[in-house]
Design a protein that fits this description.
Elements: H1 11-36, H2 42-54, H3 59-75, H4 79-99, H5 104-114, H6 122-134, H7 139-151, H8 156-169, H9 174-192, H10 204-223, H11 228-242, E1 249-253, E2 259-262, E3 270-271, E4 276-278, E5 285-297, E6 304-308, E7 319-320, E8 329-337, E9 348-354, E10 361-362, E11 372-379, E12 402-404, H12 407-413, H13 420-424, H14 434-453, H15 457-473, H16 482-499, H17 504-521, H18 523-527, E13 530-533, E14 546-548, E15 568-570, E16 590-592, E17 615-617, H19 656-661, H20 663-669, E18 676-678, H21 690-696, E19 702-703, E20 706-707
Parallel strand pairs: 2-4, 2-11, 14-15, 15-16, 16-17, 17-18, 18-19
Antiparallel strand pairs: 1-5, 3-4, 5-8, 5-10, 6-9, 7-8, 9-11, 12-13, 13-14, 19-20
Helix pairs in contact: 1-2, 2-3, 2-4, 3-4, 3-5, 4-5, 6-7, 7-9, 8-9, 9-11, 10-11, 11-15, 14-15, 15-16, 16-17
Length: 709
C-alpha cells in the first residue's frame, strides 16, 4: 500500500510471531477473567495495558479501561490524583500507538480521554508532529490534529498553513490534501453561513482564499498530472466555487407571468406562451409547484404566502414530493381551488412570495437566501369544456402517429421556461460573479492545454465538470460558444467510456444528464423534440405538445426544473434504470417508458406521487427478469409494512402464490388513476396477474392494447 512493498517473513520472524501469539493468548485469558468479574486492581490494569500494547485493536480492552477510568475519577476529587489518572491513561495509549500508529481503537480512546477535559493539550501537537514525521499520510493523525486544534481554539488559517507545508514537501500526500480540503470547506462555510456577502454566497475574503488555493492546486497538477491527490483537491475547490450555499427557488408551476385556462375534465392539455390549458380534477383544483436548487424543509404557510384577487386567503397544505418520507425535497406541492366568478372573462391574479420569513432550510443548515416573488393569472371559466366527454381512446405511441409542429405554431405555443430569469422573474435571478466565471474560464483553458500534453482520465473528467459548471453559470445569458461546449462535454464522457470501462455506468449517467441539460437549456434544441399526436383529440384550437426524448441512449434523466410543464413524455428506447426525481412532474398525463432497462416495479415508485398520470407504457423492459430475495422480510411480502399501503387479501382474487410473488406490482399500482397500462414484453409472467391489475387499478380501460371490458 502507498508504494511500500511487503517483505517476506524469515524463519526467525516466524519464531517471534509464534512466541508473540502465545503471550497474547495468555494475556487475553487473564484479561477476560478480570473483565468478567469486574476486577479493576492495579495488576488487572497492567495486564490490559500490556495487552493493548501488543495488539491495540482489541476494542474490549479499551472499553474495559474506559469503565475503570470512570470509576477511578468518580472516587477522587483531588486535582493532582485526577491528573495522574488521566496522564497514566494517555501514556498507555501512547505506548499502543508506538506499536501501531494507525490503530482505530487507540486513537479513539485517546480522543475519549482528552474529551474529559482534565489534561493539558500542550503535548498533543508535539506528539502529532512526531507521528506525522514517521508517516505524513497517517490520516488518523490528521483527524486527531483537527480535534486537538478545535479544543485549543487554533484558527483554521493556521492549520491550513501547516497542511500546505506538508503538501509542498510531497504533492502526492493525499492525507494532507484531504485535511487541507476539510479545513478550507469549514472556513468558507463559516465565512458565508447565514448571510450573503454576494449573490452566490461567497465573501471577498473567501474568494481571495480560494484564488490562492487554485494557484497551489494548478502547480501540483502540472508538476505531476498522474497523481490523483491534487485532482481530488481540485474537484473540492470547484465544488466550493460553484455549489450553491443557500437554497434558492429555481422553477415553479405555474411559471412567472403565465396565463392559465383550466378545463374541468381529466385529459391531456397544453401550455402556450400566452396561456396554458391543463388537466385538473372535477373538484376544480390545480397544483402549485415550487422547485428549489437543493432539498429543503420548512415550506409552509408562514414561509410561502399566496394571495389572489379572486379568492380569500386560506390555509394551504404543502407537502414534499419525495419517496423517502423524510420531509425534505427539492420540489413541494400544494393544491389551489379554482374560484367561481360571475364574469367568465375575468382573470384572477395570483401572487406568490417565497422566503419572506425564515424557516426554509437546506440539508446543510443554510436558510433560504433570496426572497422570491412571482405571479400568474388564471381564467377560471370552464363553460367551453362543460359539455365535453372524457376521452378514453387508447393512446398509440407509434412514430407514424406523430408529426412535427409548424415552426410558427411552436414559437407561439411552447412554454419554454429554460432559464432562471424566465422561471422566477428577471429581478430575482441569481447572477454568477465575475470571479466565478473568470475562475471557470481560466480552469477550462488550463486543462485543455494540459490534456494536449498528457492524456489522463481524471483530467478529462475535471474538464467536463468545469465546462458543465460554466454552461450552467451562464444559463439565461447569450453565449455563442455554449452549444459547442456542451458537445465538448459529451465527447469527453464518450471518450471516458472507452478509456475506463470499469466506471462505465457513472460516465453513462453523466453523459445522459449533460444531454438532457443541453436539450432543455436551448430553445432551438428543445423545439426539435416537440411533436403533435395526430390521433389524439386536441383541446381548443391548438394541438397538444408531446415531448419526445426517445432513442437518445439515456441511462438517467434530470433537469426536472425545466420539465414541470410537460404533460406528454416519450422516453422509450433508452437505457433508463431509474426515474428518480420524476415525481416533480405533477402535470404528467401520458408517459412512455417502453424499451428501457427497468428491472423491477419498485424502480417506478416516483410515479405513485403523480396524481395526473393516466397513460403508462412500461412494456419491453427487464421487469421480472431479476429474482427478489423475499426471505429477508418477516412476512411473505413487505406489503404489510409498506407506508401508505393497506393490504386486504380479500380484495384480490386468485391464489396466494400469485399475490405473494407479485407484491411489487400491487405496491406500485394499487389505486393509481391509470386508464391505460402496457406491460407486455417483460420477462415476468404477468398473464395470470391480469385480474390483480384490474382490481388494483379501478379506472383502467386498456391493458396491453386490449379493452378490460
Amino acid at each position: 500500500m502507498h508504494g511500500r512493498p511487503r517483505k517476506p517473513l524469515k524463519a526467525e520472524d516466524d519464531a517471534k510471531s509464534i512466541a508473540k501469539a502465545s503471550k497474547l493468548r495468555s494475556l487475553q485469558n487473564q484479561f477476560l477473567n478480570y473483565h468478567r468479574n469486574q476486577i479493576f486492581s492495579r495488576e488487572a490494569l497492567e495486564v490490559s495495558a500490556e495487552l493493548v500494547k501488543i495488539n491495540p485493536e482489541i476494542y474490549t480492552a479499551w472499553n474495559y479501561r474506559k469503565i475503570a477510568v470512570d470509576k477511578f475519577l468518580e472516587a477522587v476529587s483531588d486535582p493532582v490524583l485526577i491528573k495522574n489518572i488521566v496522564d497514566e491513561e494517555l501514556r498507555v495509549v501512547e505506548n499502543a500507538l508506538k506499536q501501531n500508529y494507525k490503530s482505530y481503537g487507540a486513537w479513539h480512546h485517546r480522543k475519549w480521554v482528552l474529551g474529559k477535559g482534565f489534561s493539558s493539550l500542550d503535548r498533543e501537537l508535539w506528539l502529532l508532529d512526531k507521528f506525522l514525521e514517521a508517516d505524513s499520510r497517517n490520516f488518523h493523525g490528521w483527524n486527531h490534529r483537527r480535534f486537538v486544534a478545535a479544543l485549543k481554539n487554533i484558527k483554521d488559517e493556521e492549520e491550513i498553513k501547516f497542511s500546505e507545508e506538508k503538501i509542498n514537501n510531497d504533492f502526492s500526500n493525499y492525507s494532507a490534501w484531504h485535511n487541507h480540503s476539510r479545513l478550507l470547506a469549514q472556513l468558507v462555510k463559516r465565512d458565508s453561513h447565514g448571510n450573503f456577502p454576494n449573490e452566490c454566497g461567497l465573501s471577498e475574503e473567501s474568494e481571495k482564499l480560494l484564488k490562492s488555493e487554485y494557484y497551489l492546486a494548478h502547480n501540483a497538477l502540472f508538476c505531476d498530472p498522474e497523481d490523483q491527490a491534487g485532482w481530488f483537491n481540485y474537484l473540492g475547490l470547484l465544488d466550493l466555487t460553484v455549489a450553491p450555499k443557500a437554497p434558492l427557488l429555481t422553477a415553479s408551476w405555474p411559471s412567472h407571468g403565465s396565463n392559465l385556462t383550466l378545463s374541468s375534465i381529466v385529459q391531456p392539455g397544453f401550455c402556450t406562451s400566452n396561456g396554458c390549458k391543463t388537466s385538473i380534477s372535477r373538484e376544480r383544483v390545480f397544483p402549485l409547484i415550487l422547485y428549489f436548487n437543493q432539498a429543503v424543509e420548512g415550506v409552509n404557510n408562514s414561509t410561502v404566502t399566496v394571495s389572489s384577487t379572486c379568492i380569500e386567503k386560506r390555509h394551504l397544505n404543502w407537502r414534499p414530493l419525495s419517496t423517502d418520507g423524510l420531509g425534505k425535497s427539492k420540489s413541494w406541492i400544494t393544491y389551489m381551488s379554482v374560484p367561481d366568478v360571475a364574469n367568465p372573462l375575468e382573470l384572477c391574479q395570483f401572487d406568490v412570495s417565497v422566503g419572506d420569513s425564515q424557516g426554509i432550510i437546506s440539508l446543510n443548515g443554510y436558510h433560504y437566501g433570496l426572497p422570491t416573488k412571482f405571479e400568474f393569472k388564471l381564467n377560471p371559466s370552464s363553460s367551453e369544456y362543460s359539455r365535453r366527454e372524457v376521452n378514453h381512446d387508447m393512446v398509440v405511441w407509434k412514430d407514424e402517429c406523430f408529426t412535427k409542429f409548424d415552426s410558427l405554431i411552436l414559437d407561439l405555443n411552447l412554454p419554454l421556461t429554460t432559464s432562471s430569469h424566465q422561471r422566477i422573474g428577471v429581478h430575482n435571478r441569481v447572477h454568477a460573479t465575475e470571479w466565478q466565471l473568470d475562475t471557470l474560464k481560466s480552469g477550462i483553458d488550463l486543462f485543455r492545454c494540459l490534456l494536449s500534453i498528457t492524456d489522463c482520465k481524471i483530467g478529462r473528467l475535471t474538464l467536463a465538470r468545469l465546462l458543465t459548471s460554466y454552461n450552467i453559470m451562464v444559463d439565461g445569458f447569450p453565449c455563442t460558444s455554449k452549444g459547442s461546449q456542451w458537445e465538448e462535454v459529451l465527447d469527453l464522457f464518450s471518450s471516458l467510456l472507452k478509456m475506463d470501462p470499469t466506471h462505465a455506468h457513472y460516465y453513462k449517467d453523466q453523459h445522459s444528464m449533460v444531454l438532457i441539460e443541453q436539450v432543455t437549456s436551448d430553445r432551438d434544441t428543445l423545439l426539435k423534440h416537440c411533436w403533435h399526436h395526430e390521433k389524439q383529440t386536441s383541446i381548443g384550437s391548438l394541438s397538444n405538445v408531446w415531448l419526445r426524448l426517445n432513442n437518445l441512449s439515456l441511462s438517467r434523466i434530470g433537469s426536472f426544473e425545466r420539465l414541470l410543464w410537460v404533460q406528454m413524455l416519450d422516453l422509450s428506447h433508452n437505457e433508463l434504470r431509474s426515474i428518480e426525481g420524476m415525481e416533480s412532474m405533477q402535470l404528467l398525463t401520458c408517459l412512455n417508458l417502453s424499451h428501457n432497462q427497468f428491472g423491477s416495479f419498485t424502480s417506478l415508485e416516483p410515479l405513485k406521487l403523480i396524481n395526473s398520470l393516466r397513460v403508462l407504457d412500461i412494456s419491453h423492459n427487464e421487469i421480472g427478469g431479476h429474482s427478489i430475495d423475499t426471505t429477508r422480510y418477516t412476512c411473505s411480502s413487505p406489503l404489510t409494512h409498506a407506508p401508505g399501503v393497506t393490504w386486504d387479501s380479500k380484495a384480490f382474487v386468485g391464489d396466494q402464490e400469485v399475490r405473494s410473488d407479485n407484491w411489487e406490482l400491487i405496491l406500485i399500482f394499487k389505486n393509481m388513476p391509470l386508464t391505460q397500462l402496457d406491460i407486455a414484453g417483460n420477462p415476468g409472467n404477468y398473464e395470470k396477474c391480469r385480474t390483480i391489475l384490474i382490481k388494483a387499478l379501478p379506472n383502467l380501460k386498456w391493458l396491453d392494447g386490449v379493452s378490460v371490458e
